[in-house]
Amino acid sequence: MKNNTVGPVKHRFVVLDALRGFALFGIILANFPEFSLWTFQTDEALQRLPSPEVDSLVRFFLYVFVDGKFYTIFSILFGIGFSIIIANAVKKGADGFRIFYRRMTILALIGLAHLLLVWSGDILMLYALMGMLLPLFWRCTDGLLLRWAAFFLLLPIGIEVARAAVGWSLAEVPYGLWWSTCDRFGITEQNFGTWLRDIDGYRGLHQFLMQGAWERLWEFVDGNRYFKVLGLFLIGLYIGRRRLYAAVTPTDAVASQTAAQLSGNSGYSESSEHSGTSCNTIRMLRRVMGWGTAVGLPLSFVYAWSATNGHPWGNITHSLLYTASVYPLGLAYITAFALLFCRTAKAPFWRMMAFPGRMALTNYLSQSVCGVLLFYGIGLAMGADTTLIATEMLAVCVFLGQIFVSALWLNFFQFGPLEWLWRMLTYGRRMPIRKEPSGK
To answer: How far apart, in Å, are the Cα atoms of 74 and each of 12, 77, 78, 219, 320?
Structure first.
């Protein structure tokens, strides 16, 4: 008889939580230029800011090292998480797919609320909707899973070719709805970049979010984001199903004990950290990092040049550059991170990065709240007047604050507040959030 009351996974892997924290850092670097409204300023307005030359350089390097790479990491981690949920449920004889669908439904509702009430740059709803497709691929062989992943990652290039041949895009539909909504509220190209700074109440923010929802849909369709996300999910599913994350362990016996010590009473799995990473795993990680860097890094410079110069070679070439630079370099980041963990698992850096990673949902949404309060008129109204370099310095400060708050919170509680709510709604029962005293 199957047990449908299985609880959440209790064992955690420090390398996954730390990598999730690292991804959150990259995501705030990528998102804060939109919160500060720097992204929406005209060239003339940017030239009037104190450091236009420095900002141009920062923008270029953001395209090289940040753009797309960290959402690649986050998406792969999402696929790994799916495999862990299903594998855990199978062990306990539970209906893992039902649990997962419930989890994704709740995430979609959280994402919808985020999109319509806080920030129109939400990614959670897309993750939830694409995540609901993952069970369709669960029984695929590893080889077929990778072929499907490659298909979805390469499909946007084919769509760009078809779009150029036909001369029409499905993205024109949400684009029209976007600007008709702008017209209804009096949002124009002239005040688009300052609207959020100049609002004096939530009503103005809500109006901007209404048009922003259509803008976000246009971005997803125009950029073929749903196919990209699904392809990355499938890579994560492949990694998770093969438990490659469990093979990434400290390389000596002393370090194998340290990873458990670093976690304290945090519930990290000790079972997998009993021996060093195998030579085959090390070779595989080095190979992926080497190829990913060799291909992705130089092409990321070309991609950044194309992005900052208005796609001079056309959208097909730009899409090709994105695919050939972002994914290889994102995988190089992941494997370099894993190799560094193998060698330095005793370093406090891993616990520091794991704290925000264990509260990823709470921290992702709190980044939005911080952005609103810093840059919009209902807060400090720093938007449209803040340089890009200052914006990114603020992003670093906010993330450091999240590390501190997450560490403090997890000293007393098992989960982040939103993670706790998400778990209870998923499993349909109240769960304790406070840590039990260590002697019980």
So the answer is: 17, 5, 6, 19, 21
